[in-house]
Amino acid sequence: MKTNQTTIHQPKFKTNTLLIQSIIGLIVIALVGYFGSFLAHSSQKLTLYLLTGVALGYILTRSTFGFAGGVKKIYVTGFGGLSRALIIMFAITMIGMIGIHWYAAANGAVPAFMAEAGDTIIPGSKSVNTLSIATIAGGFIFGIGMIMAGACASGTLTDIGEGATRAMIVLPFFVLGTAPGELVRYKIHDSALGKFSTTMYLPHTFGFIGALLVSLFALLLLYILVNKYEAFRKKEGFYEEELFAHDEKAIEAKRNYKFFSYETYHKFFIERWSFLTGAILLAVMFIFIVNTTGSSWGVTSAFSRWDVAFLQNLGFEFNSPAFTSILEDVNNGLLNHNGTIRNIGIIFGSLIALLLAGKFKFNFKYSVKDAFIYAGGGLIMGFGARCAGGCNIGALFSAICNFSLAGWGFTVALILGGIVGLKLFEGRLNIIPPNRHRR
């Protein structure tokens, strides 16, 4: 019987690397603690956002969990493990969120899009977005961009923390694309095209139990589809199961095991977590974020603030109502913006995960042509995300788990865009292998 355990003997040079990087990791943790205490002088909430960001980044990296990979991995390899984990994560989060929504509504709270002055808002319901042409177009464009860039918004942040210089190219262009996306979304909603839109909160249509059952049924259909496609790829003969690297596997327990040993350190900080473990922990973190802040997890709204702040310094003016709330946050200072602090935390969390595992290294394995494609992917990803009102986190994860129909529209558009991106760039970009029939 095969197990996922192994016997690992650490070469001396790897032991030295682990020692040095783990010390640096502890220094980074201390710096994060200092930064958190500094933020606490302004607001305890900022410290909370920083620490939740660190936790998210750590979980994403430790489990090699990515939202873009839910489309890319199964298309390229036929392996559906990450896609199934994403679906399970959505299901767990929905079950947690329906209780939060139902309890709040029973006490008089209303969805954010219906709220008037003085109303209590259902926690997380700010993620109930409008389903419109902007949502579909933005989702499709974002899907193409994430394939070109090699990651979505959260993935770009974690990749930076992991030393992927590709992501360091992607991020500034991602940010630059957000302001135009904000403007286009506003223009679409304010035009005749805005009539072809709807804001549907599923509990209002199906009731709370019905909304949960409908949502879980949709996830079940996706789960079955993933399994059937995986079975097709196995039968076709083009299937590659993802295997853990040798040093990512659990170490076989010894009879003379001691707690203060390399085996213990490996278990706590090096052994890779499964996709399922990552999914469960991310679902817990999502619910924790809603319970502590009243809002869901989002990434790219902060990017819009960064973009406007940068362009303002270059002399650009933002007079459109699309930028009213953004300008308020920019004028209040980016380090006072909750989303900005959480995004910084995600980068730190990923960095800490790899340093403590002794695996941090910069990656420069790409050509100039690849770099241009990364930049283009970042640009259209930024545009698409803000045109749609969010990325894989805000417009998909947060939307469907807060029972917004718009989340499902974005999901379909994103998957289609991702498939188009894969077909356009397979074999033409270093991070996308050739079509399986040509390998």
TrEMBL record:
Keywords per UniProt? Cell inner membrane, Cell membrane, Membrane, Transmembrane, Transmembrane helix, Transport
Q: Name one GO cellular component term.
A: plasma membrane
**InterPro entries per record:** Sulf_transp_TsuA/YedE
Chief place of localization? membrane
State the membrane topology: Multi-pass membrane protein
The domain of life for this entry's organism is Bacteria
Compartment list: Cell inner membrane
Segments crossing the lipid bilayer? 18-40, 46-65, 85-104, 133-155, 167-186, 206-226, 273-290, 341-360, 372-399, 405-425
A single Pfam family it belongs to is Sulf_transp
Signal peptide range equals: none
Keyword match Metal-binding: no
The entry's family comment says: Belongs to the TsuA/YedE (TC 9.B.102) family.
Which PANTHER family does the record cross-reference, listed alphabetically? INNER MEMBRANE PROTEIN YEDE, SULPHUR TRANSPORT DOMAIN-CONTAINING PROTEIN
The protein here is known as: Uncharacterized protein
User: Which organism was this protein described from?
Assistant: Virgibacillus pantothenticus
The organism's taxonomy opens as: Bacteria, Bacillati, Bacillota, Bacilli, Bacillales
